[in-house]
Amino acid sequence: MIILVINCGSSSIKYQLLDMKSDDVYTLIAKGIVEKIGLPTSLIQYAPTGSPKEVTECPIPDHKEGMRLVLQALTNPATGVLKNLDDIDAVGHRIVQGGEFFSSSALVDEDVLKKIEFCADFAPLHNPAHLLGIKAITEVLPTVPQVVTFDTAFHQTMPSYSYMYALPYEYYDKYRVRRYGAHGTSHQFVAGVGARLAGLNISNSRIVPCHIGAGSSICAVLNGKSVETSMGFSPLEGMIMGTRVGNIDANAVLYLMKKLGKTPEEMTEILNRKSGFMGLSQKTSDAREMSDLAEAGDPKAKLVLKKLSHDMIKIIGSYIAEMGGVDLIVFTGGIGEHNARLRRRVLENFSYIGLKVDSERNKAFGEDAIITTDDSAVKAALICTNEELVIARDTMHIVEGIEE
Fold it and tell me: Is 358 among the catalytic positions?
């Protein structure tokens, strides 16, 4: 089964084209990423398996244009891997927010689309982008089945005392205001791979996966189930991120709205798109550019990177306390997988529980690796997330079930 997996982030579109035979027997035909959507330096990467990677820098103002470029690359007469788009049997999409509607993946229909749209207020940077991706595929491939996999589904195992806010209870009853989390597909995948790599039985383990990228979250996985996560009602809550503020006193938001005369919509824009790395540095939301600025001595860039590691240390420490210890800390995501200095800065703060970073192993880049010493009491790992594989597996199962 040829499956195209679309993973729309707040400023990116990751994609993979896979030939799925079974859960563990598959061929990656091509993959790529559209990066820095909406920024002056947008680009698309396209990498057919066994052929050189193509990188094209061009204006990509929104996700719709990004999707057009992805499909164009796959069917390019010279370098494409598909004769035409009819070769695609199914499309799987990553969806950030499914609310309490979904605890597993689902086939796209009008009811599912309405529920995803309903949850857009919970994830204003993502769900609208996901819907654009689904609609773009529907226009080009109207008869191809589409499946959605939800980041929030993995976190449905959180206990009520973890996901409830101390607001009047009727706000939960009427408006479903609670913590939902995100990146669940990634947390579930890297916790499983990390456990196997570390020689742990995931059903008897305490794991803290850290998905650090343009959007970042940390999860407490106890015996294979999510019991706590840093993102909340929307992906805004938690640590500092590319353009999101992270944790903030709600009264500070109300104070600024009054002082600046901002509407809720305008304040939402500030908190989600003009804060975080971008807001604090006043220069960029990109972590690679931030590192370059910090190396050059920019004090605000240094502040951003210090705050990122500080936020991570606070959250990881609280989850260790909540689970009564930790067996494995995992780093994944665009920043987590590629920034050895950040990993070292964070992990060195946990030497008090016997965690020892191996400086050579921590240089790993783009491959799964244990990055602690052999005698470390707590293990840490770099695991390259593969949300696309999880989505492809779910898509295959659901579509095969329909065909049967």
Answer: no
